[in-house]
Design goal:
Layout (H helix, E strand, L loop, with lengths): L3 E10 L2 E11 L4 E5 L6 H9 L5 E9 L2 E2 L5 H7 L1 E4 L6 E5 H15 L7 H15 L3 H5 L1 E2 L5 H15 L3 E5 L7 H14 L5 E6 L12 E6 L2 E6 L2 H9 L2 H7 L1
Parallel strand pairs: 3-10, 3-11, 6-9, 9-10
Antiparallel strand pairs: 1-2, 1-4, 4-5, 7-8, 11-12
Helix pairs in contact: 3-6, 4-6, 6-7
């Protein structure tokens, strides 16, 4: 059974059609990359999977392990195992990063019928994961994303993903604004989470990220739908030739 299945998904924003028949099947343990030019609907797709408000779905469905997500609230989708790494992570003034992470872990544990994590157990867990991902202790004490650099925000998000261990993670242009060192840290964190029962959708413009997170499947997204699918070599072709062949065909 597919972990994620998107069937003929159509969606609009303020009456304007953005997604125009997206079909996508992602099996457990696979990493799919979604590449395409700006303004084609890639981020719209990621936001709709996560349950963000502001989009009108006019046709189609999204299934997680055969169960439709469309009637589920965003928090329920998260508890079911959906994780979205934002292109522009939001700031949460007044809430320490460690407090936020502990609350997220406990919400997931409560949903699974488990007791809340012990304070010492949490401290040991978060410090070990933070060290692996290059997240400094002072970042854990600071309000969520407040004053963080672009690279710090992305590292903090990958730390959250590592602690939440989602079943399906979407990385929406997580390479945006990262230098090579930060990119490698983020990629190492993602690669460490690859497993037979966890899948990823990596959304990016550039092949650079896919040199570090090597996908199983690459899709070209243009005009609100997937217009071509191939292996990792397709990303190299797109890097060399660009998207002109597809933007004209998808119009």
């Amino acid at each position: 059974m597919a972990l994620i299945e998107i069937r003929n998904l159509h969606a609009s924003v303020d009456g304007k059609d953005i997604l125009k028949g997206v079909d996508l099947v992602i099996e457990p343990g696979k990493v799919h990359a979604l590449m395409g030019p700006n303004g084609t609907g890639k981020s719209t797709l990621s936001n709709i999977i996560a349950g963000r408000d502001g989009y009108t779905i006019t046709d189609g469905d999204i299934l997680l392990n055969g169960q439709s997500l469309l009637e589920m609230e965003p928090q329920d989708r998260a508890l079911a195992g959906i994780f979205l790494s934002f292109q522009y992570p939001v700031e949460i003034p007044g809430v320490a990063t460690s407090t936020f992470l502990k609350a997220a872990i406990n919400a997931r544990r409560r949903a699974a019928g488990e007791g809340e994590i012990d304070a010492m157990e949490f401290l040991k867990l978060v410090k070990a994961k933070a060290k692996e991902l290059g997240v400094r202790d002072d970042m854990l004490k600071r309000p969520v994303n407040v004053g963080f650099s672009g690279g710090e925000k992305k590292r903090a998000e990958v730390l959250q993903m590592a602690l939440m261990t989602p079943r399906f993670a979407i990385l929406d242009e997580t390479d945006s604004g990262l230098d090579i060192d930060a990119l490698k840290v983020v990629a190492d964190g993602v690669n460490a989470l690859r497993s037979p029962d966890r899948s990823f959708l990596v959304i990016t413009h550039y092949q650079r990220l896919l040199s570090y997170i090597v996908p199983d499947v690459v899709h070209v997204f243009a005009g609100g739908r997937i217009v071509r699918t191939g292996g990792p070599e397709l990303a190299e072709e797109l890097e060399a030739k660009g998207y002109a062949d597809y933007t004209g065909a998808a119009a």
